[in-house]
Amino acid sequence: MTSIGTGYDLSATTFSPDGRVFQVEYAHKAAENSGTAIGLRVKDGVVFAVEKLVISKMLEPGSNKRIHTVTPHIGMATAGLMADASAVLNWARKESGDYRQFYSNEIPTKILCDRLSGYVQMYTLYGYVRPFGISILLGGVDKKAGPQLFCIEPSGISWGYYGCAIGKGKQAAKSEIEKLKLSELTCRQAVVEAAKMIYSIHDDVKDKEFELELSWVCPESNNKHTMVPKDIKEQAEKLAQAALDEEDESSDDEMDA
Predict the structure, then answer these.
(1) pLDDT(2) > 90
(2) CA separation for the pair 150, 123 (Å, rounded)
(3) Helix, strand, coil percentages in the chain from 3-state DSSP, rounded to 5
(4) Is the pTM of this model over 0.85?
(5) For position 165, what pLDDT does the model report?
């Protein structure tokens, strides 16, 4: 607790004299302390990639996933507190189910994003709750709108993106995303690019070992959100590791010169 925030950070309903809500800022910090998550919207679908840090060698591979399926055609990747992510995921699934029951149709990604943003923002308005310590990437393929990708911040604000990153390595990831011509990439190509970003951003010195999670919504998955098939994932990881090794060798050569 810094001196500037003393007395003004005890509740999400309290503004500081300079107009800041410290509880929301702390929620942003919680999201930024998590492993990096990337979302790419390309010409035929959406790809998610997550750097899931392995906190214990005793953990079973594939457990504590940070990529989830909300509806058959919408996926969600999170950065931050996993318990908060589970609570938001359950609410999003309930909201999607209510929409399906009322309209006899799957909820569009944009509408789910708007409702989820309102739900997250509601938790910044009352003194008896706290903001969710997560950032959310929400993406899917709609029948009319096509591929859609959104980012929801702990404050409840949401943005539509072609490419976005959340978590501790988001700035480095965004720099790499800006170099890509996303409108020309396919989901298969985007899987490789996303894997390369995660491998290049991961810090072997500071961070623990990590597990790469990859999912997509594209024609190859019948426009449903599924995890990337094992063979495609392994190939992407090999290419990412090879690119990282090549980059390290180039750096060593430059230092020797």
Answers:
(1) no
(2) 20
(3) 40, 25, 35
(4) yes
(5) 97
Dihedral sign (CA 89, 80, 47, 118): positive
Confirm if 127 and 139 have CB atoms less than 8 A apart. no
Which residue numbers are catalytic?
36
Those residues with Cβ within 8 angstroms of residue 142's Cβ, 6 or more apart along the chain or in another chain: 73, 108, 109, 110, 148
Mean pLDDT of 119-123: 96
Side chain identity at residue 168, one-letter code: K
CA dihedral 17, 18, 19, 20 (to 10 degrees): -100
**DSSP character at residue 21:** -
Q: Tens of pLDDT along 199-236? A: 999 876 566 789 999 999 999 999 999 999 999 999 99
In 3D, which of 252, 142, 257, 239 has the Cα closest to residue 200? 239
